Amino acid sequence: xxxxxxxxxxxxxxxxxxxxxxxxxxxxxxxxxxxxxxxxxxxxxxxxxxxxxxxxxxxxxxxxxxxxxxxxxxxxxxxxxxxxxxxxxxxxxxxxxxxxxxxxxxxxxxxxxxxxxxxxxxxxxxxxxxxxxxxxxxxxxxxxxxxxxxxxxxxxxxxxxxxxxxxxxxxxxxxxxxxxxxxxxxxxxxxxxxxxxxxxxxxxxxxxxxxxxxxxxxxxxxxxxxxxxxxxxxx
Length: 235
Description:
Elements: H1 13-19, E1 26-29, E2 32-35, E3 43-44, H2 51-61, E4 66-70, E5 81-93, E6 111-113, H3 118-128, E7 143-148, E8 151-158, E9 165-173, H4 182-196, E10 200-206, H5 210-218, E11 221-233
Parallel strand pairs: 9-10
Antiparallel strand pairs: 1-2, 2-3, 4-11, 5-10, 5-11, 6-7, 7-8, 8-9
């Protein structure tokens, strides 16, 4: 994609995050890495892992545990049980054709969500199921929400943080609050924050989620590459 350099770190967003911005949230053994419990189940091995790397990850996670390999193209040994396969794409915010980040009211009605908001965040996730979210997932970055009558009805947040980039995730709106522009307002506010600190937004979306794809394209995101998400259970 023109105008974006150093995008090669997005080929291993989990590994790059665990080695860098999220190193304080990482567990490591040899060449394998994963997040601490309660934050995320994403795991990483080298681009061309050998048997030892897979063995290290299995030891790190423990027997019968879930390893979300995210967009890692490498496939573990045959004694690892496949859990899911999902086709998707990785998208980068192109910096044009999207929201006006200079608007004075871009943060209007938008609240930052922290540890005290976890119960209501988990409640909204349970109702909308945008993707994996755990009791400590909010520690990955900034989370923003919109409340209606004191009830959290929409949310968006930061997830993976490879050098120079921030992944936007957990985009969700309660069924009764859809069609009111909450997702656009929250995405615009979060994109503005990411850009203001000199980083570039990117995200991942399931190929089957045509509504989300249309929204992200309308906000200025462009497809970088197709990806396949995979999860396994350790032997």
